[in-house]
Amino acid sequence: MSARNVALHFFTSYRKVCFTMFNPTINLDHSTDALETLSPELRQSIHLAYYSGFSNEQVADLLGVEVTVVEERLSDGLASLRDAMAVAA
Predict the structure, then answer these.
(1) Mean pLDDT, rounded, for 16-26
(2) 3-state SS, residue 6
(3) 24 vs 29, which has greater pLDDT?
(4) Structural domain span for residue 34
(5) Does 48 map to a domain?
(6) For 29-66, what is each residue's pLDDT tens digit?
(7) What is the CATH number of the domain that holds 68?
(8) Mean pLDDT of 67-89
């Protein structure tokens, strides 16, 4: 399964997450709430790549950065989202 498919599965699988076990002051009702916790650069890259369907090269062109920067932003952003939406087993 490609990284893109894993991310799409991640976003569609978790619609409502409440992880009060980790921090009682944080309550994320939707994956879009988790996106709001990201920096604007990470959020914009994820939105363009995963919600708008642009390739990494297209995202780089749109943002005026190198492809490696986009790949790093996507990797960092997805890691942050995984942490934000983690659920205790």
Answers:
(1) 41
(2) helix
(3) 29
(4) 3-84
(5) yes
(6) 557 778 888 999 999 999 999 989 999 999 999 999 99
(7) 1.10.10.10
(8) 84
86 dihedral zone (left: phi>0; alpha: psi -120 to 50; beta): beta
* 53-81 average pLDDT score: 95
Handedness of CA 33, 34, 35, 37 (dihedral sign): positive
Structure tokens at 15: 């619609």
Residues in the chain: 89
CB atoms within 10 A of CB 30: 14
Residue 89 falls inside a structural domain: no
The region, left, alpha or beta by phi > 0 then psi within -120 to 50, assigned to residue 53 is left
Residue 71, both tokens: 């790949």
**Rounded CA separation 54/51 (Å):** 8
Q: How many domains does the chain have?
A: 1
Q: What is the pLDDT of residue 11?
A: 55
